[in-house]
Amino acid sequence: MNKAISFVRLDFITIKPYLTVKNLCLFAGVALIMLTVNNSASGAIGLLMSFAALFSSYPFAIGEKSNMDVLYTTLSINRNTVVLGRYLFALILDLLAGLFTFFFSFVVLTIMQRDFGGMEAMVTILVLFLLFSVIQAVQLPIYFKLNYTKAKFVAYIPFIVLPLAIMAGSRFFNDLFSLDQIAGLFASAAANPLTAVLLCLAIWVGIIATSYRVSVALYQKREF
């Protein structure tokens, strides 16, 4: 685990040149516009967390350009460590983006004397964290299977397909069940929130774990 954490630090160092003051000011400016236009922090949180999800692919791009995979082999860095480090990097980046936007939104909306809606913001961060991490769980095996240049087009498809699939699934769900049945399901979840949370957590862990194992298997077969 210590090696994986060190690898996460290496990935953050790798993308540091792209996290310039200019870029951070640009992100903050866009978030400020979103906060000015909307009455809640949800839009700004969604926007900045989507930027963070895109940044999670940068280590692959930089690694391909610098031929880092060969260096990892030369330094005898276990491929499992590389995969685990990249997964941890993506998840930590998502969380940091959510927390940054949370506090930024709190400060801005407080100065503007608007209601912050802390609970709504926290729920938004949680939902988007789960959504983007699932998208990344689809993307990462593609990056580990192919190099960045070959994978970048295919890897961005989940950003389009998954939201559309959720919309289609919601419509199918609405057609399959009556409004009373749907209301009953939500009422059941509200009555047993711990069970609902644990079920969602178990599904999420299963998706991430499966993705990790697939990535390890694909990366082990790569030749450098």
What does this structure look like?
With 224 residues, the protein is mainly α. It has one domain (2-221). It has helices at 2-15, 21-37, 42-55, 58-65, 68-74, 79-111, 118-145, 148-176, 179-191, 193-221. Residues 177-183 have low confidence and may be disordered.
Instruction: Report the end-to-end length measured between terminal Cα atoms.
Output: 24 Å
DSSP strand (E) fraction? under 5%
Number of strands: 0
Helix fraction by DSSP (H/I, runs of at least 4)? over 70%
Summarize it.
The protein is 86% helix and 0% strand. By secondary structure, the protein is mostly helical.
List keywords for this structure.
single chain, 224 residues, 86% helix, mainly alpha, globular, 10 helices
Write the layout of secondary structure elements.
Blueprint: H1 2-15, H2 21-37, H3 42-55, H4 58-65, H5 68-74, H6 79-111, H7 118-145, H8 148-176, H9 179-191, H10 193-221
Helix pairs in contact: 1-6, 2-3, 2-6, 3-6, 3-7, 6-7, 6-10, 7-8, 7-10
